Amino acid sequence: MPADFEKQSYWHDRFASETAFEWLAPSATFISFLEPYLSVSGDQRVLNLGSGTSDLHVHLREKGSADVTNIDYEPLALGRGREIEKRLCGDVRTKYAVADVTRLRADLPAPSAFDLVLDKSTVDAVSCGGEAAFLAMARGVRQCLAPGGLWISLSYSAARFDLEELPFDVRVIGKVPTPKAKVTDPDVYYWCYLLRPR
């Protein structure tokens, strides 16, 4: 049976013992796709969806992103994120908030307009809950974006955003080859998407 990625109980149980994990690819790989879209002045407001136990927020700090908000609907994940940031950076400067990505406007601590919204496979976990949950996430992201804002998502699916009702124009900006057990195995990729609001 597949894991219940869409259920908070799954993540609570997982984060009770997990201290660090990178979905699909290391954060350094994901950052390489983000670099053309990161502000050199560091004044972007960045929303990191489903931050979990990834070190993505640390990489964003290293690239000069000063205003990063990490959200996850499991409080244990946010504690782990703070621990990672403190250990790797010596202090905690990014923000943390408990929020459900399918209820962004209701759950964010204050109405915000973000210049860049990021997720490393959070969209895949949400999609396990069905199309309605996925579209709720997409509409919430759309409402949270500032004028000219972008959503960049790393997904295992080559067709993740193939939905007519999606309020974004989508293009692939990168792909990551998955490890092969044998050289004769077919090429399989993870996909990095750039989403611009319609």
TrEMBL record:
Species this protein is from: Xylaria grammica
| Superkingdom of the source species | Eukaryota
Q: Which family does it belong to?
A: Belongs to the methyltransferase superfamily.
Please provide the record's keywords in A-Z order: Methyltransferase, Transferase
Q: Is Cell inner membrane tagged as a keyword?
A: no
> For this protein, what is any one GO molecular function term?
methyltransferase activity
Q: Which residues form the Methyltransferase domain?
A: 43-157
Under the heading Pfam families, the entry gives: Methyltransf_31
Descriptive protein name: Methyltransferase domain-containing protein
What InterPro entries does the database record attribute to this sequence? Answer: Lys/N-term_MeTrsfase_sf, Methyltranfer_dom, SAM-dependent_MTases_sf
One GO term under biological process is: methylation
